[in-house]
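Section handout 9: paired folding examples.
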Amino acid sequence: MVQEIYLYPIISVLISIGIFFIVKFVIQSKLSGLKGSSKLLGMISLMIITLEAGYLGINLGWFDVATEVIASIGVGFFLVTFAIQNHLKNIVSGIGLYLNKNIIVGDFIEIDGIKAQIIEFHLMKTVAQTSDGKIVYIPNLKFNESVILISHG
């Protein structure tokens, strides 16, 4: 019989595995056409593993000795998150653009004086092509920060 001290960690691991598969299903079904969405699954998986390891460490007493190390890791995690905040904003904007039905591949846009046709959406950028054949990479955050003219192609 499983001791009671191990019951909650086992349930926690099973819940984390369930959350992973739900997130994987949602990303594959709703964001399958968004290039780079597999990176999003990797980031969410890393977050689930980190949180689960933290929970297990606290619950099973693994961190009783390493409190200072945990605090340092937390500060490091905060600094890394702060450093990549623009990337995170672009990722969230990319998902919003992809799910927005008002702008689709093939639409013509004008942003910052550049007129181009959208070729594809990526997780962090949108690829467009100008009338003279030049490829333009537009950070997805730009769609939230600028006035954009959209005409459906």
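Moving on to protein 2 of 2.
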Amino acid sequence: MIALREAECCALAGTDYRPTALRRRAGRPQLKRDPLGSVTMLRRVETSVAVLSLVGATLGAAVLHAQVHDKVWVWNEKCHHPSMIAIRVRLDGAELYRSSIPICRWERRFEKGKGTFRFTPSRALVWYGYRSDEGDSTKDVGDTTVANTPLEVDLWQAGGEVNAIELGVTAEAPDGLHMNTIHMLWPGKRTQTTLTPGLVLETWPERSRAP
């Protein structure tokens, strides 16, 4: 049995007793790196995101500005040199409502037109497709308002296009809304929309003779 000398048995506190070959070399301090890359790279990414966000916001504002300032057909009482359009609603051939509206090419922000009329039909009306769920495959049995139900019909400009006006139409009874649809108003030709069997909305340029 070999006895170890005291110097070999216990290393003094604060000393590194490992052989010279195993000791770490003193080097430059190591910087901690982010798992996703260097600080410089992260800053570049953040800058790129900020630039893209700014560009996107600028383009969005430009598109919105262009849409607002598009020249489309509008229904507005202040139209300069307007084209006059006749609007008529008939039930079973009898005229319920007749009016003339001014339209012109103007910016979208001037889509201001609206009108209202009321009537009380002497017969029941059956409204199809207005209270059905979209995509419902079951047969639409219709929504009936009984005879002598007072109805209020609202007309307004729902949208303007370069060649037409989207005319919004709703019919409301005391128990709620029974119809909500769009009629395409074409400045140069006659069009009609059947709102419910027997109830027809027509529009035409007033230079044309009424049927």
